[in-house]
Amino acid sequence: MAEPGTLPTGFRELEVLAVGTVLLVEALSGLSLNGLTIFSFCKTPALRTPSHLLVLSLALADSGISLNALVAATSSLLRVSHRRWPYGSDGCQAHGFQGCVTVLASICSSAAIAWGRYHHYCTRSPLAWSTAISLVLFVWLSSAFWAALPLLGWGHYNYEPLGTCCTLDYSRGDRNVTSFLFTMAFFNFLIPLFITHTSYQLMEQKLKKSGHLQVNTTLPARTLLLGWGPYALLYLYATVADVTSISPKLQMVPALIAKTVPTINAINYALGSETVCRGIWQCLSPQRSEQDRAK
């Protein structure tokens, strides 16, 4: 991190402002779309089903990512005037922990939705409430467990190159950090990606001939791969080489890409679902909803 009173190494004032602006747009977009999704779930009884509970879990996680991006955007804009991280060391650890929990919950929720859809479409039996609740609890407890490990000594949270947000420290080359990053990438990215891809592929193979496939079977896995893949590659690279050889600007690219995932997920899982869209429309048009019920 740059010393107080100076800009981060490798960045000009205009570049810091540009990153802050991009983060702000991503944060507001993700918060508004996922917030609308959460509001519709709370207000529309038809959406209170086990399968939609998994989508609600994803929307909550993505809202947390967008909130984390909002803090990063604010600190980026403040950094131009104050020239320092405004929330202190404890704030950095809290920011890193909150971001890690919601990122892992988002990735695992996507995998849970994929498995839930495979169960629904291929077994022709509805997802039980007990199963959906168990999946959601596992996703969030597992995410909190992995995110807490750096606070307990395995891994470490530190500032990203711009110094405006905190994440898992990948700049250290010691065994403690590299072993944690490799394990994290395997269990919390590669395995969920495999589950997501396999579930949709099996579902597509089974239902393609019948013509009853009503979900996008390629976008979820691509979103995970393209959205979080650059971060995973950065972490894996840090386990085998000196990551400081990568320019600070290039190191910030994965963070900016990842912050678009909440918006993409909201479009795919909420706005891309006729049932959820109907629920959102009912929330935004209460008078129309009352007329529909009267009919």
Automatic annotation (TrEMBL):
GO terms for biological process: phototransduction; visual perception. It comes from the Eukaryota. It is found in: Membrane. The keyword Transmembrane helix applies. Its main location: membrane. It is a multi-pass membrane protein. Residues 33-269 form the G-protein coupled receptors family 1 profile domain. PROSITE patterns: G_PROTEIN_RECEP_F1_2, OPSIN. Receptor for all-trans- and 11-cis-retinal. Binds preferentially to the former and may catalyze the isomerization of the chromophore by a retinochrome-like mechanism. This is RPE-retinal G protein-coupled receptor. It comes from Microcebus murinus.
